[in-house]
Amino acid sequence: MSFINLKEKVVQVKIVYYGPGRCGKTTNLEYVNRKFRDQIQSEMVSLKTHGDRTLFFDFLPFDMGQIKGYDIKIQLYTVPGQVKYNATRKLVLKGVDGVVFVADAMEKQREKNIRSLNQLHENLQAYKESIFKLPLVIQYNKVDLKDHGVPILPTAVLRKDLNSRLKVPDFEASAITGYNVAATLKKIISSTVVSIQKKLL
Amino acid sequence: MNYGIVSQEQLEQIDTILSSKLIKLGVDCVIIIDMAGNIITAKDNGESKYDVYSFAALAAGNFATVDAMAKLVGEAEFSLLFHKGQDSNIHFSKIDDELLLISMFGKDISLGFLRLNVVEAIEQIRKVWEGTNG
After folding, report:
1. B65, A88: Cβ pair inside 8 Å?
2. Global pTM?
3. In a designed cystine with A25, which of A17, A55, B44, B70 is the match (CB 3.0 to 4.6 A)?
4. What are the structural domains, with CATH classification, of chain B?
């Protein structure tokens, strides 16, 4: 749940990047951190293992400017993607306002995407949130691999696997080159802010 | 309990409590956060330059981890945490299931004295909270 400070006119919004291991959640945040440097006042916080895998979460606070006199502070988080870290994934989801589900477009990751999305559904239920109601954007990451001869799933297949029931906004993307990273972020921020406004009215 | 929106009046009362009970004592910085990592309010002595937003995210994660560990050893909770450093220390204390009070202080304040004041501050903050939300 977002926190609204009426005294200082600040709204804090929590957006979590969720997805299977090595799908590019941290890479998304790293790109945002580089690209929008002037809107970010602090350093990106990453809690990772020696092997550079996310251990707990990455955190990136992001100033979005003002809406109706209120400062909007977007807090971007990632979860650890590795299967064994579900307990920590759940912790990071606490109080979430919006989710970006990052899917890995590589053919061999097909099943992992589906499993991860199902687990997101379960984890949200633990907080009495519904994947069908929470602002959600799906990103099919790594589409650039096609040019390098790595077999990737056509977007139609990914969409059928992951988005046939949810019917949420989705994007093909390449977090490493930055393709559609900003588009994904803009979409989730706007859906989330609209949903918070609705809750308040 | 709806903790999503806190009135200006409540926040001012809480800020006054934090100032009189903790900042006056010599605490460098006091933050109240919720368990999702949002900052409810932050007060400092005017000199400290902590990145409170990152701090809140990490603190919430830290406390949630300790909470999960408590459950593993059969405790309902560990309601306070203390990290000691050479020059600065951090003290975490639970206000209720959703809120956490974090004090950052130097070596001039004794832990016992701080804890006494934290307990008093928390009691007063709970009253402010219950006043309008209860």
Report:
1. yes
2. 0.87
3. A17
4. 8-133 (3.30.450.30)
